[in-house]
Amino acid sequence: MTTTLPSPAPAITEETRPYWEAAAAGQLTLPRCGSCSTVIWYPRGFCPECQATDVEWFEASGRGVVYSYTISRRGRAHNPAFAEAPEVVLAYVELAEGPRVMTNVVDCAEADLRCGLPVHVVFHPTDDGKGALVRFAPDPAE
């Protein structure tokens, strides 16, 4: 699989701004609940576990494992940015910090894809050149 995927600019809200600004700088930051320590995904201003609003941002390790994946070879017409894209690996990656994030796996041969595959974060500049999307690639030792 390739890294030549489209990278449409995300819709940024005040709640997600710290995440996207960090991604543009090549860092993976996540929110964590100050009350119960839950690492929160998708970024929001409250904890989905205890509903506390004491949320703080921290730099995550950028490491995880593929929890589940599929290869999309059809249906790319639902998002015009992906109409001409090659196969797209859609995956849930379980981060070392706990949450599972939906993302793409890149730079991985189809034969090498598997659940449990160790991966690390990579950042792909958005098509508008103003930000970056978070994707994952196999760890070099794999």
In brief:
With 142 residues, the chain is mostly beta strands. The chain has one helix at residues 17-24, and strands at 29-33, 55-59, 63-72, 88-95, 100-104, 118-125, 132-138. The strands form 2 sheets. A 5-stranded antiparallel sheet has the order 5-4-3-6-7. A two-stranded antiparallel ribbon has the order 1-2.
What report would you give on this structure?
This protein is mostly beta strands. 6% of the residues lie in helices and 34% in strands. The strands form two sheets. It has a five-stranded antiparallel β-sheet. Strand 4 (88-95) and strand 5 form a beta hairpin. The model has no long low-confidence stretch (mean pLDDT 90).
Question: Can you tag this structure with a few keywords?
Answer:
142 residues; single chain; two-stranded antiparallel sheet; 7 strands; mainly beta; five-stranded antiparallel sheet; 34% strand
